[in-house]
Amino acid sequence: MCARTANASGAGKAGVDGDSFAMRSIGVVHSPYVETAQVPKGSGARHDAVGVLEVFPPFEPGLTDIEGFSHLYVLWVFHRATGFELVGTPPTDTRPHGVFATRSPRRPNPIGLTVVQLLRRDGARLMVRGVDMLDGTPILDIKPYLTSIPAEDLRRGWLGEAERDRAAPPGAGPP
Ligand SMILES: C[S@@+](CC[C@H](N)C(=O)[O-])C[C@H]1O[C@@H](n2cnc3c(N)ncnc32)[C@H](O)[C@@H]1O
Fold first, then answer.
1. What's the topology of domain 25-145+160-165?
2. What integer pLDDT is reported at residue 3 of this predicted model?
3. Ligand 1 atom closest to Cα of 31?
């Protein structure tokens, strides 16, 4: 894999070598979670933990004007995951599903995606609500959260079915 190349202005071009793409972390997550077991899991789990996204000094100019956005996408690395499983049973269901139909940490490219609420910016530190990453997680990228898809057009696939089954388990009749 090629190393990332950067010019004197700091602008860079991700190294590309066939099917491989070299990336580097632009920052690190400070999270209250140090072990995976501490992160709320499953359907209905609330993610309201507050954490800090610390952006490394060379990348701080990239935060210019971020304060105006209420929510952000954070792309990060499941750096403590090992290997991957193409089909597996997630904690939210009893049936197996393909990895690309789940949010499993054990994926071919161990990239995580979390939407957080931006509470405050303090220089290169963004205080955010909604972290589900472990402390020390490397950050690949941050982008403003924008969506134009109306809620009524969204489908939740197998997860919606699992949530409905959980609300009304088989055999449960009307009250
Ligand atoms: C189900 S994944 C979803 C993560 C993200 N919201 C996504 O959709 O990509 C969340 C789980 O990843 C695990 N996790 C968080 N940070 C991690 C890291 N740096 N390395 C490995 N596993 C991590 C925790 O166990 C957490 O419960």
1. Elongation Factor Tu (Ef-tu); domain 3 (2.40.30)
2. 36
3. 16
